[in-house]
């Protein structure tokens, strides 16, 4: 048996939707399928505005423009994340201040954020790793105390909740991703959730290349013009058509993933009891979406050997991020000279197991047997 790391699931309406988009003759963005996706996202998330974008990265780029980040500003971000959580703000000249993570969730350690605030700090960027919510109450209270904005990187957070609120709707802005590796996908696509309603109008300008075209489309003005910064953040209708079909089954996809995650957890808990691995600890107030199933071992050598053992059985098990403060670009920017021991260790000792909504019981058994057989020897 061969178990891939990821496999996409389709609802069956993807191709018919694309056909309809072609027949409509409207392939540029903001056609009928973009509107369907945005409505579905407002219903799922309850965000006041959900604007479809070309990617999670574009959504973060838009957030950086909307919040007027500039040279000399600082933002606090976990070191254990994807580059876009940082690059979008670095592109505006802002300086990342890296924070360590919580070993139970690999999310930003909220207890360490306040000590990193300076008079230059403008923003906190919590990243909801694996679709498990960061401790947003603490994060928002630090932000409020110091007058900071909060942009949630909820790239992995579709159909996941913190205290009943959808990830990405708790800070000022949230970024979702529908990249090919995500639970709900259109290959490359994303959305920005605008929770601070005073930002919605400018978000529409920035998304449409810095123009007020939306007001022209709505019949409010005769001619659209250049009114703001902006870029090309609107996805093609072909992409939206695919995503619309995926969003129809997002709850089903999530349920199946969570069922697979629960099976892994129940079975591998025996190894945790023996003390040879550790599993994630999802806080009770977080309803996660099973985006990632990870375990950690006591050393990087053990994790590497386990990954090789699984590979020998045709099971794809992968590590994840290199802590950003230790990457070449952090050195170039002069922001890498910090010690963040939890992320440094866990990045070496964690391993992700294959998970997707269509994973079969046989595949799950095979992966679990692979992990168990490694710890037998
Ligand atoms: C935490 C995180 N942030 C940002 C992104 C960027 O999203 P995208 O690939 O849609 O640009 C991703 C996904 O790749 C991610 O996992």
The run of helices and strands is HHEHEHEEHEEEEEHHHHEEEHHHEH
Cα shape: globular
CATH class of the largest domain equals Alpha Beta
- Helix tally equals 13
Going by CATH, what is the homologous superfamily of the largest domain?
A: Type I PLP-dependent aspartate aminotransferase-like (Major domain)
Ligands in the model, by name, code or SMILES, are: pyridoxal-5'-phosphate
What's the quaternary structure here?
A: single chain
Describe the structure concisely for a colleague:
By secondary structure, the protein is an alpha/beta fold. It has two domains: 14-249, Type I PLP-dependent aspartate aminotransferase-like (Major domain) (Aspartate Aminotransferase, domain 2); 251-376, Aspartate Aminotransferase, domain 1 (Alpha-Beta Complex).
Question: How is the topology of this model organized?
Answer:
Elements: H1 14-24, H2 32-45, E1 49-53, H3 56-66, E2 74-78, H4 84-90, E3 95-99, E4 121-124, H5 136-146, E5 149-153, E6 161-162, E7 165-166, E8 173-177, E9 190-194, H6 200-207, H7 213-217, H8 237-247, H9 250-274, E10 278-279, E11 286-287, E12 293-296, H10 300-312, H11 328-333, H12 341-349, E13 350-353, H13 361-376
Parallel strand pairs: 2-3, 2-4, 4-5, 5-8
Antiparallel strand pairs: 1-9, 6-7, 6-11, 8-9, 10-12, 12-13
The protein binds pyridoxal-5'-phosphate (PLP).
């Amino acid at each position: 048996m061969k178990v891939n790391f990821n496999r996409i699931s389709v609802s069956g309406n993807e191709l018919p939707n694309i056909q309809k988009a072609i027949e409509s003759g409207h392939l540029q963005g903001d056609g009928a399928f973009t509107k369907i996706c945005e409505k579905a996202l407002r219903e799922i998330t309850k965000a006041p505005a959900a604007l479809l974008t070309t990617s999670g990265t574009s959504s973060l780029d838009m957030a950086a423009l909307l919040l007027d980040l500039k040279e000399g500003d600082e933002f606090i971000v976990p070191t254990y994340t994807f580059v876009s959580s940082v690059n979008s703000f670095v592109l505006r000249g802002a300086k990342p201040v890296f924070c360590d993570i919580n070993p139970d969730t690999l999310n930003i350690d909220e207890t360490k954020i306040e000590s990193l605030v300076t008079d230059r700090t403008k923003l906190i960027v919590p990243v909801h790793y694996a679709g498990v919510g960061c401790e947003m109450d603490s994060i928002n209270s630090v932000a409020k105390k110091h007058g900071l904005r909060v942009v949630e990187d909820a790239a992995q957070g579709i159909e996941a909740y913190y205290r009943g609120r959808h990830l990405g709707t708790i800070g000022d802005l949230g970024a979702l991703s529908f990249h090919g590796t995500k639970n709900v996908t259109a290959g490359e696509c994303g959305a920005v959730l605008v929770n601070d309603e005073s930002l919605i109008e400018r978000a529409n300008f920035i998304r449409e290349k810095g123009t007020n075209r939306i007001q022209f489309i709505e019949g409010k003005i005769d001619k659209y013009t250049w009114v703001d910064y902006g870029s090309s953040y609107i996805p093609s209708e072909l992409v939206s058509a695919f995503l619309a079909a995926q969003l129809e089954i997002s709850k089903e996809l999530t349920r199946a993933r969570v069922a697979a995650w629960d099976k892994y957890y129940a079975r591998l808990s025996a190894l945790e009891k023996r003390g040879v691995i550790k599993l994630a600890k999802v806080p009770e107030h977080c309803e996660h979406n099973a985006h990632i199933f990870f375990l950690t071992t006591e050393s990087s050598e053990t994790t590497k050997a386990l990954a090789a053992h699984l590979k020998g059985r045709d099971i794809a098990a992968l590590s994840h991020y290199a802590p950003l403060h230790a990457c070449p670009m952090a050195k170039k920017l002069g922001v890498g000279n910090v010690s963040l021991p939890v992320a440094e260790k866990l990045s070496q000792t964690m391993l992700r197991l294959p998970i997707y909504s269509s994973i079969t019981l046989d595949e799950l058994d095979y992966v679990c047997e692979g992990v168990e057989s490694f710890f037998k020897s």
